[in-house]
Amino acid sequence: MLGSAACFGLNGLSFVAVIVGLSMLRADLRPALSRQPLMDELRGGLSYVRSQDALVAMTLLAFLATFLGLPLLTFLPVFAQNVFQTGVGGYSRMMAFSGAGAVAGALVVAWLGRFEHMGRVLLVLLGVFGALIAAFALSRTLWLSHVLLVASGAALVMVFSLLMSLVQLVAPNEMRGRVMSIYMVAFRGGSPLGSLAAGYLASQFSAPAVLAVNGLLIVAVAAIFFLRVRHVREL
After folding, report:
1. What is the CA radius of gyration of the chain?
2. pLDDT of 163-190, one tens digit each?
3. pLDDT tens digits for 133-147?
4. Which of 39, 195, 206, 221 has its CA 20 to 30 A from that of 27?
């Protein structure tokens, strides 16, 4: 409707709201500047994370969730072109439905704030996210796939928002920066590695088959963490 240039322009303008929001923050806490060498700081952060079972579990969970879950977005062009034969327009609509769900999920997390049993809710939502991915991979009805994309977009944002919130709540003030740096390496690293692995497997089998297996693996990961990893379940 507007064209790609207008869409990129609107996307750039959206960052103005983020800049304004950050400028309105008023933080009274100013931690003392560290005098330790960079490598000592890094070793200290890694040592602290290794000593905290909850942080190790959530860092691993972030990697697995992005490794297995974000190929959903990577494969959308394949579904639009090969599965539903809707072309570029169909891909744009799929992204729009996923984005609408993501906005809704972000608003829900913002409305909930901090609440009891966040860890359990996180793991349940992760299992739901995996089931939605598998259902989308198996769906051959366009309107149903759109509904599943809305739901999966909401679940994706809620899972990652809750996970990042829990990491920050567990980490003490003086270690939070280093803990989040280590967490973000796992979180950001899972997406390209997962897309690379999923893309290779899709060339050997098919994108729907790979995505369905990924979804089922996410359900399995969520179940294992819920049943066996109390450090996350009890948060």
Report:
1. 19
2. 988 888 888 777 777 888 888 888 888 8
3. 999 999 999 999 999
4. 39
Q: Tell me the pLDDT tens digit for each residue of 54-85.
A: 888 888 899 999 999 999 999 999 999 888 88
The predicted model scores a pTM of 0.84
Closest CA to 166 of 112, 220, 224: 112
Alpha-carbon gap, residue 162 to 113, rounded angstroms: 9
| Sequence-distant (≥ 6) Cβ neighbours of residue 189 within 8 angstroms | 63, 66
Q: How far is 101 from 99, CA to CA, in rounded Å?
A: 5
Q: What band does 117 get if pLDDT is binned at 50, 70 and 90?
A: confident
Q: How far is residue 41 from each of residues 29, 37, 55, 70, measured CA to CA in Å? A: 20, 6, 17, 31
Element (H, E) at 32: none
Burial 52-83 (b: 16+ CB within 10 A, else e): bebbebbbbbbbbbbbbbbbbbbbbbbbbeeb
3-class secondary structure per residue, 146-187: HHHHHHHHHHHHHHHHHHHHHHHHHCCHHHHHHHHHHHHHHH
- State the residue for tokens 């088959």: 209
Query: Under a CB-based contact definition with an 8 Å cutoff, are residues 212 and 79 in contact?
Result: no
The token pair at 195 is: 């897309």
* Of 169 and 38, more confident: 169
